[in-house]
Amino acid sequence: MTDGMPEMTSLDRTALYKSLGNPLRRRILDYLGWHGEANSTVLARELGESSGTTSYHLRKLAEQRLIEEIPEKSGGRERWWRTLPFRHTTPDPVTMTPEECAAAAQLAHLKIEFDTALYHHAHQEYCGPEGWAQVQRHGTWMIREELLAFMRDYKVLLDRYGHSREEAPQGARPMLMYYYAVPELTEDHPTEPATAEPGERNGEPTGL
After folding, report:
1. Are the beta carbons of 2 and 15 closer than 8 angstroms?
2. What is the CA radius of gyration of the chain?
């Protein structure tokens, strides 16, 4: 599901996962998230690619509504781009086609590498409960309905306290916030069915 957009088909999701699983396209999205805007020449210089390559991938990202052209800055052959607000929650894998599952698995592998680096970075930067880096671990008991309600409230909190890059107040810093909730394996429940991963947002530097 994407905010303000029609329900995605399996083909749409497969194309999305393939794009987000492409290392260069993710680097382009990361750069635009951090810097707000860029053209193919800037991206080529910063990412060590040719302008033809970055221009091609920019067009593909635009086709999937992950980025858009900045008309007031574009002219002639020079086109400037910015990210678009975006949310997506991966559906239950049992409802996916084999091709969609493969694309989602490739994307998950790339994100695991990023998440591992983020985990180490959070611990390295931690300087107490009042610092910028926060590390929390909790355990509790919930029924499924309570867990889903918690997820909805979690997203509401992010919207309440978070800001877009353009609307961030003075002193704000880009924050990477990842949330996982996983049932603990016990003798009564030795395995758990696969579930959808947390939603993700593009438009800010999230590593999407």
Report:
1. no
2. 19
Q: How far is CA 93 from CA 100, 102, 108, 197, 202, in A?
A: 9, 10, 13, 10, 22
Reference 176, options 127, 140, 125; nearest CA is 125
Closest CA to 126 of 138, 134, 118: 134
Q: Is 36 left (phi over 0), alpha (psi -120 to 50) or beta?
A: left
Q: In this structure, what DSSP letter does residue 201 have?
A: E
Q: Residues of the chain with pLDDT > 90: what percent?
A: 55
Residue 39, judged by CB atoms within 10 A of its CB (0-12, 13-18, 19+), counts as: buried
Higher pLDDT, 202 or 103: 103
Helix axes 40-47, 23-35, angle to 10 degrees: 110
C-alpha to C-alpha distance for 159 and 205, rounded to whole angstroms: 15
